[in-house]
Amino acid sequence: MAVLPSLIIWPEIIINFPHLSPVQWHTTAANVLAYWVAFLLYKKLQKFPGARTLIYLLPSVTICWAIALGVILLLRLDYSRPALLSAFMLANMVLVIGNQLSHKYHQLKLAIVPFGDYQEVIALDSADHRILSAPAFNGIRYDAVVADLRSNMPDEWQAFLANCALANIPVYHSRLMVEQLTGRVKINHLSENIFGALYTTSFYGIMKRIAEVIFVLVLLPVWLPLMLIFGAIVKIESRGPMFFIQERVGLGDKDFKVYKLRSMCQDSEKKGAQFATQGDARVTKVGKFIRKTRIDEIPQFINILKGDMSLIGPRPEQRVFVEQFKKEIPFYSYRHVVRPGISGWAQVTQGYAANADETRVKLEYDLYYIKHFSFWLDVLIVLKTIRTMLTGFGAR
Fold first, then answer.
1. Which of 135, 306, 323, 395 could disulfide-link 292, Cβ–Cβ 3.0 to 4.6 Å?
2. How far apart are CA 10 and CA 356, in angstroms?
3. Can you give the residue range of the structural domain that contains 361?
4. 335, 314 in Cβ contact below 8 A?
């Protein structure tokens, strides 16, 4: 009942804006901040594949209002709870309605230029595409034009693309459009990828490293007891150590020791390194639960403090598999230009890889992450990771 009156007083607040009380000022400022961050987050996240579903968008709105509330509480400011709550509910309602209308009435419509390598775009079901028979739209509205910009096309088609750019109609290279719609970077030819964007260091990379160390230290009272409790349960259930320690390949193609809670029986790799498979008999009963919920990854916070790993990044592999994949998969080593992560784009999109073919696809996801290395992509991966922890997606 308190929410409805708060919605009614908003027009009065707008009319009397110069004469707002401190409570109204603080509440209005917090809501404006939350709306702005939510809008910015929405615009940034929707650029990535699979990010337009409400399962990711609604939590992002909650995060924005949580940040606004956190600032208010940190500064010990007076505020109106009903007004803050009503603005939060209104933002969610607008998001749900807008998202449903967008899915119902608008699908990305692409005009395909029929020269060079454009077949991959046609094979995708992510957009409504039509192949142009002549360099003209013939009165049809398109969201963008897709063309193989490296192909040899007639002069009139080149002029058509130039005119599209002048008219502010986006023109995308076919390879980049496939990448945008699938979240994967193809690895057939080195020249087909913008490897200048494969960061070895950046300002964001430095800030990310600092933020992750602070995050792990702040949450130390939470994850350390949780790790010890489940570690004790692991030891009680089956014979063997609490931790599973294994050599993995990390940043710069250098080996490091990764720490995990043991989820398999002792001597699970006495026959040599092997992938975990669906329903793997080596996994213990407790191991199934901690693998599904990713609790077995908690000890890797220690790897983060040591500088071996990051919260977000490509999953580290064993040296024996790395050497094998280097021979079988082009550009496999490029995944080692960033720190490996506890969670990653490939992990939350594809799940675990159990053979060379799946690893090739996984590498395409990893290179997409490296190429689009940013705060916003990390935010989306965090949201997807939460879904993964709740659903057990990709666990083996």
1. 395
2. 59
3. 203-265+278-391
4. yes
Nearest to 316 by CA among 340, 332, 351, 345: 340
Q: What is the DSSP letter of 259?
A: E
Q: Does residue 198 form part of some domain?
A: no
pLDDT band at residue 238 using 50, 70 and 90 as cut-offs: confident
| Residue pointed to by tokens 């014979």 | 239
Same domain, 75 and 216: no
Strand extents, DSSP E, 104-254: 109-112, 128-131, 144-147, 171-173, 243-249
Angle, vertex CA 268, rays to CA 267 and CA 274, nearest 5: 135
Tokens in use for 329? 């998969």
Decide: 30 and 66 in contact? Cβ < 8 Å: no
Cβ-contact 300, 260 below 8 angstroms: yes
pLDDT over threshold 50, residue 1: no
Alpha carbons within 13 A on the beta-carbon side of 249: 18
CA distance 377 to 384: 11
Alpha carbon distance 26, 46 (integer Å): 30
Residues 6+ positions from 22 with CB-CB distance below 8 Å: 77, 78
Q: What is the pLDDT of residues 278-302, one digit of tens each?
A: 556 577 888 888 888 889 999 999 9
Q: Which residues 6+ apart lie within 8 Å of 396 measured at CB?
A: 276, 277, 278, 280, 291, 351, 352, 354
